[in-house]
Amino acid sequence: MNHDTNHDIRLVVLDMAGTTVADGGLVERAFTTALGSDPDHLAHVRATMGESKISVFRHLYGDEIAAQRANAAFEQAYGNLVADGLVTPLPGAREAIERITEQGRTVVLTTGFARVTQDALLDALGWRGLAALTLCPADAGGRGRPYPDMVLEAFVRTKAAEDVSQVAVVGDTSYDVLSGVRAGAGLVAGVLTGAHDARALRAAGATHVLGSVAELPGVLT
Question: What pLDDT, on a 0 to 100 scale, did the predictor assign at position 187?
Answer without folding.
Answer: 98
